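not sure who needs this but someone in the group chat was asking about Coronin from Mus spicilegus so here u go. i didnt clean anything up, its just raw.
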Amino acid sequence: MPSPPHPSAPRDPTAFLCVPLQGCGEVGLGSEVKSPLLESPLCPQTGRVDKNVPLVCGHTAPVLDIAWCPHNDNVIASGSEDCTVMVWEIPDGGLVLPLREPVVTLEGHTKRVGIVAWHPTAQNVLLSAGCDNVILVWDVGTGAAVLTLGPDVHPDTIYSVDWSRDGALICTSCRDKRVRVIEPRKGTVVAEKDRPHEGTRPVHAVFVSEGKILTTGFSRMSERQVALWDTKHLDEPLSLQELDTSSGVLLPFFDPDTNIVYLCGKGDSSIRYFEITSEAPFLHYLSMFSSKESQRGMGYMPKRGLEVNKCEIARFYKLHERKCEPIAMTVPRKSDLFQEDLYPPTAGPDPALTAEEWLGGRDAGPLLISLKDGYVPPKSRELRVNRGLDSARRRATPEPSGTPSSDTVSRLEEDVRNLNAIVQKLQERLDRLEETVQAK
C-alpha cells in the first residue's frame, strides 16, 4: 500500500507511536450484542468472552449502529433493521442475565435505522437517521420525536451524520452527492456543497476545529481522498489530498483536544492520522499505524477512558471476524509527570443543557474536566424516562404508602430467583472442584 503524499513537512511524524494491546473479546453481530471484556483501566479482564455471556437482545432484526451516551456511562442506544431505536441501561458490574427489555423504545422510522448519535452537550437528546431518508431527534426523557428532518431535506440515503461540538448544528452526507450543514431546530440548511468528491462511492463528513468540516470520499478515478472545508466558503477546499486506490470507505474520528483526525477504512489494515491547524496547508500528515489483519469495523474510546499515566492519546477497538483488538495510540515521553500539552481539559460526563433548554434555542459547549489525577467515574446515574418505563427511577422513588406495590414485590421476587440461580451454579462448580481434588 503506498504511503500518503506529504503536501508539506510532516509535523513530527515520529511523535506518535501506535501500540496494539493484548486482549480481545468476541462481539456478537446481528440482533444481539455481546459485551466484550477489553483491557482498560476500568475493565482489567482480557481474553475470549464466554459463549454464554449475557446479551442485549431486544431487537428482532440485525443491529446496524450503537452509541454510548456521553453523559451516562451505563446507557447505550441502538438502531436496527426492525425500524426501531432502543435505549438500554447496563447495570453496574455488567450483565448477569440477558437484557431483553429496553428502558425505552423509540418508534417513528418506516425503514431500517442505520445511524444513532447522542447530542454532545444536551441531556437525553438522541438523533437517528433511517433508510427512509428521515432524521429524527428524540427526547429520550419523554420517548417522543421532537424534531423531524424529512425527505425534502435528504432525497436519498443518508451516509453520515455528525453533531457540532456545541450541538447547534449537524453535518450530513447523502447519496445525492451533497454535504449539508443543518440547523436541526429550525430545519434549515445553513450551507451545502455539491460533489465534495467527484467519485460515486459514499462520502463521510465530520465537524472538526473552528467549525470546519472534514470529508472523506473518492475521486473520479476511484482514488481515496480526504478534504478540509470552511463552512463559510464551500466553493473550494482548504486542503485536498489523495491517499491510495483502496476500495474501503474511510471513517474519520476527530479528537478536538489534540486536533488530530484518524482515518480508518473498512477492510484496511491501517490507521492514518493527520493534524489540523488554522494555517495553510491546514491538514498535516503525521503517520500511519499498520497491522497484518484487516478491520471489519472500528470503535473509539472517549478521552476520559484513556490511561494518562502511559501518555495514551487515543484508543481504538478493532473488530476482526471473531475478536475485538484494542489499539492504543501513545506518545513516547521520558517523564512520568502529567503531560498537560497532551491532555488539555476535555469533555466531562456532565451535560451542559437539559433537553428543554436546547430545544428552546440555547447552545453551550461541553463542560470540561481535567485528567491530571485520572478520571474517576461518577456514581451511577439514573436515566429518567417520563413514560413509566424507567425501572431505575421506580426503584429510587419511595412508595407513597408503607405497603410495597405488587410491581415492587415482583421485582424483588425476580431478584431472589436470579440470586438463587447464581448460588446454585457456584455450588455446582464448587462440588466439581472438590471431586477433582479428591480424585487426585
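also Residues 398-440 form one domain. if thats useful
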